[in-house]
Amino acid sequence: MIIALAPAYHGNTLLALSASAREHYRMFFREWLVDVQRIPAPYPYRCPCKGRDAGCPACSGAALEHAIARIGPDQVAAFIAEPVGGSSTGASTPRPDYFARIREICDRHQVLFVADEILVGAGRTGTWWAIEPYDVVPDILVMGKGISGGYAALSAVAAPERIIDGIVDGSGSFMHAQTFSHHPVACAAGLAAVRHLKAHKLVERCAELGRVLQRRVGALAALPHVGDVRGRGLLAGIEFVEDKATCAPFPRAARFAETFTEAAQAEGLVVWPNVGHADGTNGDLVMIAPPFIITESEIDEIVARFGVALQTVVKGVGQRVTDN
Ligand SMILES: Cc1ncc(COP(=O)(O)O)c(C=O)c1O
User: CB within 8 A of 254, min separation 6: which ones?
Assistant: First the structure.
């Protein structure tokens, strides 16, 4: 058995989708998915404790302990999590002590801890791996996207020899080869991208400019319908709500995230919308993930264009309310 978080997203192949709590993706494939147990994700904005309670099962990691006890420790193979939330929680960051607790629980029960760094790895959050600031080493690290700078279809899994040996001594090799796996051109693009990041100190730059981005986008929290602004490095998530006081989301039918995304695009700003994280259906957020070479003045431009786009959308919402 694998344990995963909810919300979470790990991909669309069958086991990855089984581990993903994204109902609007899962619904088309439900009969083919396997059973993966879920525990609540550490998602401070949507948790009653707001991430402040060290005793909160979701925010502290204790929910994993409870799930392992319920399933039976000898039945649990692995726990998978994104060290910083990707699309499903929009750059949400767990409490600083979360992954140390996860590591300790996994060690005690001999459960493998898999860090899904496909979105947040390769420098995006200002460290090579988003798990680093938690001072924890996962058993398996999954990477993709940024390891080739997005220029070639490349993903990879890193694991220590004690895990590789288990495969070697078992089946002897992976039993899921594909035509283009281990592709030398993709690997060459990956090496070139990583060398470029290192040579130009772009991860360090991402940390430095990331601090600027987080400070400046923080100002967006004052705008109407902006419920939360969060993130790390050059990854920011902005969550929209109908009511800022209660964190109540817009009804899905309002398509707020999609409407905002179109308005932002009209202002020349590309954001990444996501929906459904508030309760599985409702919830609107967008993510900002600029290139590592962004400048301070371009960050200011992002914030300004974001504000203009939001004004357009909010005017539209007000207009619809008046018309009704
Ligand atoms: C956190 C995370 N894990 C896994 C994946 C799946 O990667 P792929 O689309 O390459 O299968 C994604 C894709 O967006 C992701 O964001």
Answer: 242, 317
- Going by alpha carbons, the residue nearest to atom 6 of ligand 1 is 11
The dihedrals phi and psi of 286, each to the nearest 5 degrees, come to -130, 155
Ligand 1 geometric centre to CA of 180 (Å): 18
- pTM for this entry: 0.95
Q: Which residues line the pocket of ligand 1, CB cutoff 6 A? A: 9-11, 82, 86-87, 116, 118-119, 144, 155
pLDDT digits 0-9 by tens, 111-137: 999 999 999 999 999 999 999 999 999
Backbone angles phi, psi at 265, to 5 degrees: -60, -40
**Is the CATH number 3.40.630.30 carried by domain 202-323?**
no
The CATH code of the domain at 2-143 is 3.40.640.10
Beta strands 284-288; 226-232: pairing state:
unpaired
Residue among 118, 145, 157 whose CB has most ligand 1 atoms within 8 A, to mutate: 118
**Numbered ranges of CATH 3.40.640.10 in the chain:** 2-143
Q: Are 303 and 309 spatial neighbours (Cβ–Cβ below 8 Å)?
A: no
